[in-house]
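Incident log entry.

Two folding requests arrived from the same account within the same minute. Monitoring flagged them as a possible duplicate submission, but the sequences differ. Recording both here for audit purposes.

Request one:
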Amino acid sequence: MKTFEHEVLTFDANDKKSFAGMQETLREWGAAGYEVVSVVGTSVNSSNFTVFLKREQPSIELGAAQ
């Protein structure tokens, strides 16, 4: 059965520098095997974002552990 790890990140991307930082952070998480599942704007002007990520955990073979 597949199992997953989850992470939740929050960003304030109200200017180009903040937006670039968000992109770089998401690239790093992607390189670590995470994928974005959902993005939600969490402010009225949508400059704040909550990003939900997941990655599959390696499966453990029951027979191999013995």
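Request two (distinct sequence, not a duplicate):
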Amino acid sequence: MLANLSKQVKQYLVITGNYWAFTLTDGALRMLVVLYFHQLGYSPLAIAMLFLFYEIFGVITNLIGGWLGARLGLNKTMNIGLAMQIIALLMLTVPNQWLTVAYVMAAQALSGIAKDLNKMSAKSSIKLLVPKGAEGALYKWVAILTGSKNALKGVGFFLGGLLLTLLEFRGAILAMTVMLLVVWLFSLYALSEDLGKAKSKPKFREILSKSEAINWLSAARLFLFGARDVWFVVALPVYLATVFAWDRYWIGTFMATWVIAYGFVQSQAPRFTGKKQGKTPSGSAAVGWAAILAVVPLLIAVLLPSQQFGETVLIVGLLIFGALFAINSSLHSYLIVSYADSDGVSMDVGFYYMANAMGRLLGTILSGWVFQEYGLQACLYFSAAFIAIAAILSVKLPK
């Protein structure tokens, strides 16, 4: 079957496989860091700060990475990202006394650069494989890639909790390093096409998008992902461990299951947003789905203080939030690829994911600070407000 595929499609399949393997280590590493450093006695804000450089360098990488992808080709940016993640993992295998906040932040910075080089390379490739005008097919393949990636990130969460239990922190990191090293060596051999290289060399000053639609979508994306991470990244796992006294293995398993289900819904998003009527979504769909999503964290926040049903409210609410957030995220992922210019697509996609990374950065910092000062309920109110802002910004998207 593979022999009958075009060279370009084969290259995309290799990139997708690399992206999946990378996603497993990225999800596992995040869960390992949160649970391990909570176990060492770090405060929620200190844990959030461990990811500060991860998110900051994600912002920078998406801007510069899109430009590099257009100039060098997406195969090169993918391989650079894989190599950097291997180095970041090896940095965390040092003795415990070396694992200071500053040192772990530096390792996470390298991991953040690696992650966004991989994401930008994989997402940009889709635009080049779907014929112009085939918007239904474009939405389908974007939804499948995005959903499968997040499902594997959920598996990574589970893997992180399991490896920490079985191998302890350093053993878990070494196991992931060996796996990713094999993938990187195969990638060096298999990726030979300059997929995504622009016909003309884009200038560095062109990294900022000139498209009004992409600018509004990027702003909405910033607040959408800030709304998720403001309670999901640090506040939720620490709350489950301290208030409900969940074991770290069960925290990893639950959050893994949530992200896997979230990824499945993402892959099925076209079914919920007009596929049966033969339609592809527009900017107005992004407004409507965001407005519905904003209600969920607000309701959870109001009902959470109930001593009798608090745990049930949080779990059920999280599942509903995940399903609706998955549809919103998949809609955005389709719209950016649809709006992007085919020549040098990584420039537009990189700018958009720069806003995505800024949202994660904002949400991560607030997740630690707001939870530490005011609790999970306040994080949920922030989440609802951010989603409402995303809905308002989406009004400006093309109808």
